[in-house]
Amino acid sequence: MPAPKKGSKTSPKRPAPKRKVPSSHVIDYHPESPVIREHEAEERRRHGFRTAMWMIAAMIVIGLGWVTWHEALEKNSQFMLREVKVNTVGVLTREQIVAATGLTTATNLLTMNLREVRAKIERLPQVKSAVIQRDYHGRLNLDVQQRMPVAWIECAKWDLREPLSGKGCLLDAEGAPVPCDVITRQYLALPRIQFPGLSRAVAGEPSPDLQLHMALKLMRAMHERDEDGHARLERIEIPNAWSLVAHFEGDTRITFGVDDLEPQLVRFDRVLKEARARAWRVATLNLLSRINTPVTFHETPDVSGLALVVTESSSTAR
């Protein structure tokens, strides 16, 4: 440091003393020593022993539980299947439904999966729905709703032939094909629906075709009229997308339109009522025409007493 000049009153500055930085001391909380290592090893041995004991106890409990379940429940004859009661009406027999479940007398009702059994039954195309109940006394109750056939379906494209051909197929009220293994008199009496343009024929699945559903609706309407003395419906032909031809006993053909079926049925009832009253044998009736409905007869009809409408063309011809 430079010395002060002579005559200066300023005292010379002293250098500031250096501060002492305290030295840091790290404490080891986990010191290594033979004694500490021995204590840690002893603690690990005790912890491992406790874990092993808990595992052994758990295995014993699980084993005892499994043995109890197996001996008291699974092998208990009280819960074994002894009887299957089937409540159903339709083309499937009781034996066929039981065979579809795959159940045997060795089946335990406690461990049986009811959803799987129901799914197996409902996979049958003849079945619409199924309800299963078990009573834990060896009995299983099956309430099976089958698709009830209302008609035969014929379509050459899908190789669906007439009933006695060996390739006949029934139809339920929803338009779903129902395979038929056994033909009875009751089934033979059902009307037939001839539909060459059927778009799909999957057993157990309703058809999407509007014409088919309208044919079923027409068939139900004709069935209701059977009680009034109308001729029995034998078959319904679907020749195109807009018409239905109903064939009755006595060689009578009535043509209906696919749309607006209700007003056509009203006109049908009026014509048939007059035909019964006058003993007419109707051959054809075309209800597609809303005005001047054409009708033909097997014999010359008796029109005495009827007020016939004379058209302008007929009066001019006279």
Q: How would you describe this protein?
A:
It is a single chain. With 318 residues, this protein is an alpha/beta fold. The chain folds into 2 domains: 69 residues, Roll (Ubiquitin-like (UB roll)); 169 residues, Cell division protein FtsQ/DivIB (Rossmann fold, 3-Layer(aba) Sandwich), CATH 3.40.50.11690. Helix content is 32%, strand content 19%. It contains 7 helices and 12 strands. The strands form 2 sheets. Strands 6-5-4-7-8-9-10-11-12 form a 9-stranded mixed β-sheet, with helices on one face. It has a 3-stranded mixed β-sheet with strand order 1-3-2, covered by helices on one side. Helix 5 links the parallel strand 7 and strand 8. The chain is elongated, with a radius of gyration of 46 Å. It starts with 33 loop residues before the first helix and ends with a helix.
Spell out the blueprint of helices and strands.
Blueprint lengths: L33 H41 L8 E5 L6 H8 L12 H9 L4 E8 L4 E8 L2 E6 L14 E4 L4 E3 L5 H4 L3 E3 L15 H16 L7 E5 L5 E6 L3 E6 L3 H18 L3 E5 L8 E3 L14 H6 L1
Parallel strand pairs: 1-3, 4-7, 7-8, 10-11
Antiparallel strand pairs: 2-3, 4-5, 5-6, 8-9, 9-10, 11-12
